[in-house]
Amino acid sequence: MTAVKDFVVRKGLQVTESIKLGNKTITKLVDSAEVTSIVQQPSVISQVAGSTSVGQLTNVNLTPNPEVLSLAVDSPTAGHASPWLWTWVSGALPYARATITNQSQSNVPLYIDGTYTLFNFAAHEIHGTMTQTHKIYLKWIEGAGTDNLPSWSTSALNVQNITFAGVNGGAATEVQRLNISVPSSISLPTLVAPTITYNVAFANAGAYTFSGNAVGDNPNIGPLYKGGTYTFTLDSSISGHPFYLTTDDGTNFSAGQYVGEYTTGVTGSRNDSGTVVFTVPANAPSTLYYQCGQHAAMKGTITIKDLEVETNVSGNYVLYFQHDQEDHAVPVEIRPRPTIAGQSCLVYDTTTSKFIPQDIGDYITKTATARERITELATDEITSKLNDDTITNLTKVKDQTVYAANLYQQGTLQLVTGTARWYAPFALQIVAINNKVSTAADQNILITIKKNGTSVKTGSIAASALSSTVTSPEFTMAEGDYITVDITQIGTTNKGENLVVQFKYKQT
Predict the structure, then answer these.
(1) Cα gap 187→32, rounded to integer Å
(2) Which residues face 68 on adjacent strands?
(3) pTM for the predicted model, two decimal places
(4) In a domain, 359, yes or no
(5) Cα 370 from Cα 355, distance rounded (Å)
(6) Which of 145, 172, 323, 386 has the highest Cβ tally under 10 A?
(7) Residue 433 lies inside a defined structural domain of this protein
(8) Total domain count for the chain?
(9) Range of the domain at 486
(10) Angstrom distance (rounded) from CA 184 to CA 337
(11) pLDDT digit string, tens, across residues 240-273
(12) Is 181 among the domain residues?
């Protein structure tokens, strides 16, 4: 049993000594000459196994600090619907973000109370193989236009001379900037029913050619929202190609018969000039088709949704990063603040007067003296290694230095033919391939690794497992060769989440 002492000065030279022994307290008067120091003992912190409390301390907050993140987006390739490419650097542990550079993402998560600065490098300056620029907005619903933007996301269209490591070759670029401050409590908006116009022409044989809010020959369009008004403006070149909406997917098409024609909310059906206007009724089906009355090939699919904010299977709201046209959209899941992560410690935050969890990476970033000390230690170690010839020999350096690169699919896994590329910075040999997910799938996850578009290795993560390694992973790459990763099988009900394929390599 442990005794805990408190010495308290009563008056003059009189000192009492209180001894706590179990649940009993013994107090006696002692001579001041026996006392070498007077100490007030702190409260004892509870360390009961499994307890989530921190004893009697009231100034402890076990919720991680809100995420603060700068990220970049680009679209340097030709094509209206080419994917946005995302870049950010890993941050605090609870948010589980791996560093990525110019990678497409199936979902970009933002977190409650988070503060985000997004730089859009595709907004103004043509680079890469771009043929047009693209603004980007955070929207409550997917689709064309700039209505239904959350009040907590603001856009600055012309921000000069921004650089971001790995984006546009590191060149200073005029960008669009979004400042996003996710509130602690999400209030759903009163959504505005969209009013959208599509320009339609007969520019290529066998096709309605769209421009403006949708682009291409016979594109699939939407989502159109119930209550919204959508106008198809028909160019004079449409003459002889009557435009109508139908419930038939083309299976029963017969020239001039208008099979399955849908006219509820439609004005101008079968027009081949002027306009066809569609105000989507509340009972509209989830899928319609536009169709030429004379030519079977001239058709496309129309997706229709209720006018409401989406939620996913986790009950989290889903918004969209998208430009002011259709396509080019990425879902944005608004996630709750995460719980405290492993490998975290408590530090004192003077701004809130509370102890808060913090991982070592975050601590080093925010603590100048820690960074300075690490620099000193690194300098001493480098000097030592220079002196003993450990790192002066190029062969030794190449053999002893192992690099790592990651290709990543964030969020719930999807089957995908990989488009994100990692380019070899020099001649190298892959020496290890590690696969990891944050949430396991209910069947094997299968991946195919390709070099310059040709399969070189395959890997898998077993059902219910979180990681695996590729057996016999070695292959060589020349400078400029690239790797892509296809995901060829995922789970069924539990598909798996946040896949990272890590390549370890040495210079040759």
Answers:
(1) 65
(2) 115
(3) 0.63
(4) no
(5) 19
(6) 323
(7) yes
(8) 4
(9) 402-507
(10) 9
(11) 999 999 999 999 999 999 999 999 999 999 999 9
(12) yes
- Tracing tokens 């990220």 back to the chain, one arrives at 71
**What would the mean pLDDT of 384-393 be, rounded to a whole number?**
69
Could you tell me which residue, 82 or 153, shows the higher pLDDT?
Answer: 153
Q: Determine the residue type at 27.
A: T
Looking at the structure, do residues 80 and 156 belong to the same domain, yes or no? yes
Residue 389 confidence (pLDDT): 67
Mean pLDDT within 146-172:
95
Residues 6+ apart with CB under 8 A from 189: 140, 148, 150, 309
* pLDDT tens sequence across 309-363: 999 999 999 999 999 999 889 999 999 998 887 777 888 888 888 888 888 777 8
The enclosing domain of 295 has a CATH number of: 2.60.40.420
Do 312 and 182 fall within a single domain? yes
Which residue among 290, 305, 320 closes a domain?
305
Taking a C-beta distance cutoff of 8 angstroms, is the pair 440, 493 a contact?
no
Please give the share of the chain, as a percent, with pLDDT higher than 90: 67
**Between β-strands 221-225 and 299-305, what pairing exists: parallel, antiparallel or unpaired?**
parallel
Name the region of 448 (left: φ>0; alpha: ψ -120 to 50; beta: rest). Answer: beta
Q: Mark residue 488 as left, alpha or beta (left: phi above 0; alpha: psi -120 to 50; beta: remaining).
A: alpha
CA distance linking residue 19 with residue 170, whole number of Å: 67
Tell me if 432 sits within 8 A of 467, measured CB to CB. no
Q: Are 134 and 328 in contact (CB under 8 A)?
A: yes
Q: Which of 305, 327, 360 is the last residue of a domain?
A: 305
- pLDDT for the residue numbered 286: 97
CA distance 245 to 290: 5
Residue 161 token pair: 């001379």
pLDDT tens for 226-235 read: 999 999 999 9
Residue 187 sits in the same domain as residue 122: yes
The whole-angstrom separation of Cα 89 and Cα 98 is 7
Cα(14)–Cα(20) distance, rounded to whole angstroms? 20
Residue 55's contacts (CB-CB under 8 Å, 6 or more residues apart) are 43, 44, 45, 46, 47
* Residue 424 counted as domain residue: yes
Same domain? For 96 and 21 the reply is no
* Secondary structure class of 237 (helix, strand, coil): helix
Same domain, 166 and 210: no
pLDDT digits (tens, 9 = 90+) for 456-488: 999 999 999 999 999 999 999 999 899 999 999
* Region of 22 on the Ramachandran plot (φ > 0 left; ψ -120 to 50 alpha; else beta): left
Which residues, in sequence order, are bridge partners of residue 462?
A: none
**Does pLDDT of 47 surpass 50?**
no
Are residue 278 and residue 323 in the same domain, yes or no?
A: no
| 187 and 140 part of one domain | yes
Average pLDDT over residues 58-87: 88
The CATH number of the domain holding residue 498 is 2.60.120.340
